[in-house]
Each structure stands twice: as structure tokens, then as C-alpha cells.
Design goal:
The protein is of the alpha/beta class and 126 residues long. It is built from five helices and five strands, in the order E-H-E-H-E-H-E-H-E-H. It is 46% helix and 18% strand. Helix 3 links the parallel strand 3 and strand 4.
Length: 126
Amino acid sequence: MADKILIIDDDPMIIEVMKSRLEANGYEVISATDGKEGLNRARTDSPGLILLDITLPKMDGFRITQLLKLDDRFKKIPIVLFTGRVQEEDKETGLAAGADAFVPKNFDPEKLLAQLRTLLDKTKGI
């Protein structure tokens, strides 16, 4: 069974690009386009990993991260903040909220895939 990745981003083009790349590498991909929908999908669809933008309608990525990491049922799901905001302050805030990684949207696709695999393997104890 493929690992399931939830992408939460308000840009449909980003979702499509990431979905295509992830599916081509064997992942199952689900998505949401605002913070509240993303939080609900995280709670109901049991993703193995969440790729999360910071700037979202209805609820920002920092808050989603905090809410999931404070809940014993979801705190082990790796969260990768995937954002256009690249200030050190944003990275520090995201990691303090409980994010497992911070990746700027001007990313190297192979490095991102390797990082996702590492985080997924870690949750499985590999």
C-alpha cells in the first residue's frame, strides 16, 4: 500500500505539480485548499505525512501544526512546512509549532523526495 501524503495549499497549480510528482514516485496524494479543510482531512484521512503551506485561508499552517501536534492521535504524523515564506523567523515559528521540516517552494525536487522518504521511514521505525 502506498504512503498517503496530504498536501494543504491554496494554490491549485502547486497542488497539481506536487501531486503529479508524488504519484509518479508511488505515493497516494490527497489535498485541501484551505486550513480548516486541511485540518479536517488530516484528522479523517490518516495521512502518513503532511505537506503544508503556511499562508492559507481560514487557518494558517502554524496553527494547523500546533493543533495536530498537541493531539496524541496525530502528533506522530510528520509535517513539512512547504512555503514561499523563507524568512528565518517563519522557519523558527514553524519548528517551534512542531513541524518536522521546513522546505521553501523554490526546492530541489530530488532533495524534497528524499526528505519525505526519510520522514515516512522514521515514523515506521525503519
